[in-house]
Amino acid sequence: MRAFGFLSFGHHGTGAARGEFGAREALQQAVEIGVGADEIGVNGAYFRVHHFAKQAAAPIPLLTAIAARTKRIEVGTGVIDMRYENPLHLAEETAALDLLSDARTAIGISRGSPEPALRGWEAFGYEDSGDAKGATMARDKFERFMSAIRGTELAAADPAQFGPGSQLAVEPRSPGLDRRIWWGAGSRSTAEWVAEQGVNLMSSTLLTEATGASFGELQREQIDRFRQAWAEAGHDWTPRVSVSRSVFPITSDLDDLYFGRRSGAESDQIGIIDGLRSTFGKTYAAEPDRLIDELRADPAIAAADTLMLTVPNQLGVDYNLHILESFAQHVAPALGWRPNTEGPVEGYSV
Question: CA-based, 20 to 30 A from 65: which of 8, 96, 129, 244?
Fold first, then answer.
């Protein structure tokens, strides 16, 4: 591990009950957490994207707001559900964000996880009649998105303005943006596909596989297959790899109250998602010395350059920054962390 960031689901309520904050407060607090994390030296601020739910849903305005008030922290998503997106519009917005942030982006995209709405992407105007889960549509859209940000001319130009036979590319374009795009993979075979596409690997918070191996072991195999496929594809640059975990250093009585006395989260969980037997990672909550030993023993964390810490955004700015600062001060240095003051994060050699 060389870097760590926070991954927020952006949960919020209606704001009607006393002490409950709504969408405005959740977004404003997300910006403040990003600003505080940048000052601590945290490498990344990442946000989940869910639709038809009281969670983060429109990432580009939020990431732009964070980028405008920070200097070094990377801003990104984990992940944008491509089923709900217009690929060319997303390419325009992502390029604008990349230009405004001076290339401090890490945009994770995928088919997405199950949403509250049944085939909710159809309400957004998109259909995939041949695939009930929309996976084929998501990958097709992703191919068009990548073509757009790589400068492929995708539209015929008006001959009255440009003459016959001219083609136009999507604007704006940001040099090197294609190397800051990630795909969220939930299986080993998908990780190999990601390598073939020439984008970074964001290993999912759950894997749609259950072989008896631990979550960390499954992810490590996924990462190893990604890097082998990357080398075989012959790409001429070094990719990034991230994994996410729930990690809570216990350094105060309040930490112990919130997380030290949790039950049922000390081992991986097996469940059914999208009809597939899946593995969910455990929560790490312990005193710093014990956390260091446990995280060092996690084979996926050892293999990834970036660790995303899922944070409880509902507990407010101060407490979330306390978690990040505790990890930065007491745990991360022992794992090989390099704060954002040392420059952009680089992946491990393939």
Answer: 244
